[in-house]
Amino acid sequence: MCLAMDVPRVPRKDIGRMFKYLKDKLGAADTAAMSSDDLMTRYCANLSLLESAQECAILLGRMARERDTLAGKSPVSVAGACIYMASHLVAQPRDARVISHVAGVSEVTIKNSYKLLYADRALLLSNQILAVDPAASTANLPIP
Questions:
Q1: What secondary structure, in 3-state letters, does 83-115 show?
Q2: At what angle do helices 36-46 and 96-103 cross, to 10 degrees?
Q3: Domains of the chain listed by start with CATH number
Q4: Given a cut of 80, is residue 7 above it in pLDDT?
Q5: CA distance 107 to 81
Q6: Of the candidates 71, 68, 138, 144, which has an alpha carbon nearest to the alpha carbon of residue 112?
Q7: Nearest CA to 63 among 116, 100, 99, 101?
Q8: Which superkingdom (predicted)?
């Protein structure tokens, strides 16, 4: 039955034990998952965004995490949506299609996550975020 359903017959405990063994033998230093902050830094560089847009995106991601605006979304989706919003906010707009190509998620995923950010924008966009760039304005944000 397991073969027919394409389900492994190895208990989760054994997989965890083997993972730890291989990590020790191979000397893997850090196996922590990447956060959306780490991803935003890389994606902003790949999108040739100025540092102000990157800083704005990271602050926006932290605010969204504190408020649970994007709870349950993957770090890649969070990064993509925050970059989309931040790039428009600081008047360095990047198309969702371009961001989706860099991030490796669909354009629809970014736009759906952006809708959640946009709905909560009054609480997310603090003075700290708006002070990052003199060009930052909520009037620059596209309506989803």
A1: HHHHHHHCCCCCCHHHHHHHHCCCHHHHHHHHH
A2: 120
A3: 36-140 (1.10.472.10)
A4: no
A5: 10
A6: 144
A7: 116
A8: Eukaryota
In angstroms, the CA 98 to CA 95 distance is 5
- When pLDDT is averaged across residues 108-126 and rounded to a whole number, the result is 93
| Pairwise CA distance, residues 93 & 75, whole Å | 21
Contact 129, 63 (CB under 8 A): yes
Angle at 143 between CA 123 and CA 34, to 5 degrees: 60
pLDDT tens for 40-77 read 999 999 999 999 999 999 999 999 999 999 988 999 99
Residue 13 CB burial class (10 angstroms; 0-12, 13-18, ≥19): exposed
| The 3-state secondary structure of 23-36, one letter per residue | HHHHCCCCCCCCCH
Q: Which two tokens stand for residue 6?
A: 């394409």
